[in-house]
Model the fold of this input.
Amino acid sequence: MVDRVKAIAGIQRTLKGLLFTETEVFYFHLENLGVKPDEILDKPEQFAKTICDIFGKGSPLVERAIISEVSRELSVDPKGDLVAMLRSISKG
Done:
């Protein structure tokens, strides 16, 4: 079974590295879409939409950074896009 806590920690670490103190703004926007930080794996489409809304054309880079960090954290091969990866982790 995949460790959801480690997956979420990897996501949060990546976002903090990219946004520094602005992570609160990201999570505020995410929660406005009805997703709490601990629900990211259960609602990957809304999470990806928030990334796109916040980062615009830079969102593919952010998604790849998250995929890389979560893959490393969980010792799994990065497969597919962010939504597909989060779905596979959620089903874990």
About this structure: The mean pLDDT is 88. The first helix runs from residue 4 to 19. The chain has one domain: 4-91. The two ends are 5 Å apart (CA to CA).
